[in-house]
Amino acid sequence: MADSIRDLLEMSLQDTYSAETQILEALPNMQKAATSPKLKQAFQEHLAVTKRQVERLEQVCKALGIEPEGETCEAMEGLVEEGEEMIEELSQGPVLDAALIGAAQKVEHYEMAAYGTLTAMLKAMGEQKSADLMAQTLKEEKDTDELLTEIAEGEVNPAALGQKPANDQKASRGAA
Questions:
Q1: What is the CA radius of gyration of the chain?
Q2: How many domains does the chain have?
Q3: Sign (positive/negative) of CA torsion 59, 29, 37, 94?
Q4: Which structural domain, as residue segments, surrounds residue 50?
Q5: Residue 68 half-sphere exposure, CB side, CA atoms within 13 Å?
Q6: One digit per residue, pLDDT tens: the chain, 176 residues?
Q7: Residue 124 — φ and ψ, nearest 5°?
C-alpha cells in the first residue's frame, strides 16, 4: 500500500522494471515473427535499448535504496499476451507486421506514461539525476514510437493493403 509519494515511487519503479523485463522476453519473438526487414531491425535495436533502460532503472533503484523487483506488471502482461495472440492467429506477412507494430506501439505508449510519471515524481522529490535518467528513457520510448509509425506508414500498412509504398508518405499524411 502506498502511503506516501516515496511508496508510490517505489511501486511505480518496480512496476516499470517488471514491464521492461517482460518486454525483453517478448521482443525476440516479435522480431522473429516480423517479415519487414525494417521492422525486424527496429525490434532488434529496441531490444538493445531496452537492456540499457533496465540498467537505468536498476541504477535509479540503487541510488534510492529500492529493490527493483516487485510484483508483476499486469498491464504489460496483458499487452504482451495480446501481441503473442496475434502472432499465433495471423499468417506471417504485412498484415501481421501491421499488427505487431500496433502491439508494439501500445507498449510504447504505456512506457511513455510510466516514464513521464516517474520523471515527474523524481523531480518533485528533488532527485534530479534520477529524473534525468528517466527522462532519457522517456525520449527513447518516444523515438521508438515515431520510428514504428514511420515503418507503418511508409512500408507495412501500404503492403498490408496490397499497395506499393509511396515515395512521399508525409505529403499524404496531411490529407488524412
A1: 18
A2: 1
A3: negative
A4: 5-160
A5: 17
A6: 668 999 999 999 999 999 999 999 999 999 999 999 999 999 999 999 999 999 999 999 999 999 999 999 999 999 999 999 999 999 999 999 999 999 999 999 999 999 999 999 999 999 999 999 999 999 999 999 999 999 999 999 999 998 655 444 444 444 44
A7: -60, -30
- Give the closest residue to 25 by CA, choosing from 94, 107, 114: 107
Residue 147 is part of a domain; what is its CATH number?
A: 1.20.1260.10
Q: What is the DSSP string of 13-56?
A: HHHHHHHHHHHHHHHHHHHHH---HHHHHHHHHHHHHHHHHHHH
Tell if the pTM clears 0.85, that is, is over it: yes
**Segment 19-24 long-range contacts (CB within 8 Å, at least 24 positions apart):** 19/73, 19/75, 19/76, 19/110, 19/111, 19/114, 20/50, 20/53, 20/54, 20/57, 20/111, 21/54, 22/72, 22/73, 22/76, 22/77, 22/80, 23/50, 23/76, 23/80, 23/107, 24/50, 24/51, 24/54
* Cell numbers found for residue 31: 522480431
Question: Is 150 inside any structural domain?
Answer: yes
Amino acid at 142: K
